[in-house]
Amino acid sequence: MALLKRILFMILIVDIASIKLGRGFVNTTLIFWRCGSQSQSGNYNRAAMEVKGRLKRNTGRRGNNYYTSERVRDELRRRCYGHAICNQALSRQECIDCLQVTGTRLIQLCGFALSARVMLHDCYMRYSDGYFYEGCKNNASHLNLNFSPQGISELC
Ligand SMILES: *[C@@H]1O[C@H](CO)[C@@H](O)[C@H](O)[C@H]1NC(C)=O
Ligand SMILES: *[C@@H]1O[C@H](CO)[C@@H](O)[C@H](O)[C@H]1NC(C)=O
């Protein structure tokens, strides 16, 4: 029993330590967007939807900066690549909320484009059928410390 209590106590401490307080509001003002040409492939669109879904769900749980890609069914070597980043001032849930809005914006602004990116004041989402990670990955610490539309549009 004592052991169980100790374990529960430790879980509680770890849990509290992992809660980020956040800022209390999310600024979803649209800053810029860019759309590639429209996709003609249902399989590609399905991969892109999967990628966007993961970006929305997972980025807030993965340090507000997250990459994922998905293979396109029946198309050899073709993938959809995705990246999302939130202002580090945002809590996990605030990041999820912000990216929910980018997801909606991407569809409104770009439809089923092969590649698209949307920057809101507090978060950014991009997906593409071409690999584009180098600039952002090589500058991850810079991006995490200085969340700015200029930096992100130049590097990611
Ligand atoms: C939200 O972001 C826009 C664009 O960057 C800025 O003009 C505005 O002042 C921000 N609003 C708040 C409440 O911070
Ligand atoms: C980003 O990374 C590249 C190397 O890939 C480096 O040359 C460049 O200075 C970095 N930019 C910033 C702002 O850190």
From TrEMBL:
It comes from the Eukaryota. This is Uncharacterized protein. It comes from Melastoma candidum.
